[in-house]
Amino acid sequence: MACRLSLSPFPKPPPFLKIRSAPRFIIFVACYGIFTHLLFYGMLVPVMPTALIQRAGVPPKDLQKWNSILQAVYGGATLVISPAAGLFTDRMGSRRAPFLLCLVCLTGATALLAVGTNLGLWVAGRLLQGVSAGMLWVVCLALLTDTVGPAGIGQAVGIIGIPMSIGPIAGPLLGGVIYARGGYYAVFGLMFAMLGVDAVLRLVMVEKRVAQRWLEAEAVQPDSTDVCPESDLPANLTPCPESSDTSYTMTGNGDETTNGTPPSRQFLHQLSPMLRLLLSFRILVALAGGLLQSSLNVAFDSTLPLVVNALFGWQQTGQGLIFITILLPSLLQPVFGAITDRYQQGRRLLASGGCLLATPAYVLLRLVTQDTLGQKALLCVLLVIIGLAMAIAMPALIAEIGATVAETEKNDPQAIRGSVIATGWSLVNAAYAAGCLIGPLFAGLIRNAAGWQTTTWCLGVLSAVTGVFLLLFLGGWIGKLRPKAFILRATR
Asked: Looking at the whole model, is its pTM more than 0.85?
């Protein structure tokens, strides 16, 4: 009896399949989705302080508190939803459904904030916006890994690092200008228009793994029904009855796999994939580094607009323009991402070096205390240095986590039990979301209690601690490497 495939006519491939499934187009769609989300996040930065007072009725003395709380609500929602989004995306297999679902959540959040006339609507809108972010990051990073593979993820992260940086930084600029010239609803009009374009792009895109089915089907002869007679199968392969495709499972003596596995391995095999990943020291270190760096990255969101308003009297336009100083260096992220892929063992130096470079810039921000041209120039220079430091560190950290997940899955597939790409990226997202939760509260509450000078000292100390921590532990304990071996690995 022969092993046959059900050869009903394969569905006709969709128009322009090769274009719609091309890696460049998929990366563009992911970049646009990230840009749309983060642009709106950034547009709210200069709008929120005024809107909270005029529309939600927040007293001016409580503005810093509620500004920080709403930022933290966003980060907290992202943190909570990220692990669930990773498990859901891996179970679904296809990235299309969760990719569209996060767009629906963002649309709902935009609608709630557009009509937000009380704090309850603002909290609900930011909560739903955080849920959308948690799903978006997981799906996009998993989609990129499917498209370019683990070996190219560093450069891909560098490419999506551009909208990751442009969105939250160009957002305050656009939000401030549009709000000052067109009013509150003009800001949301632009957002809904961009969401429409985003929906079209996500519906048009075809995943690489899905497109591959049509491309492979074209190479199959339509009259070849006998695919593989059972007599031709190896003795230890049998058809898998549960599957509708032509997969096969290994059969043999069960004692060989059970008794031949050490007890410690058997225990690991019983754990969920997420717990199995969290037992990796390399992943824990990279996640901790991502959390700390994310806290530093978003610390300015709840403080910088209020600081320049208090010091220089800048309104929404000026509060948005100041973020350009952090935007410009972030355009170099693809360069540092390519360096990360080329010298994979140099991730330790890039990640720690970026944080250590930012340390003196954070500390020197305390010198900006007066409304003079020189002080404004000093503020811009220091923010440029901080933006460059972010561009250096981020691709290295994310690529380290992605490489560790891929190696764990490759080295012990039985313990992982299937693909955990999205689950691994959900841990990345959870770490950065935790930073989004901690950063605004950390900087905002310290400024509220002790002032701007103390806030900059604290940010400098946090940046230094992060840099030293990554230098010592990222990729493994540095003490295990001899100086010569360390240099050779870093340049390999």
From this structure: no
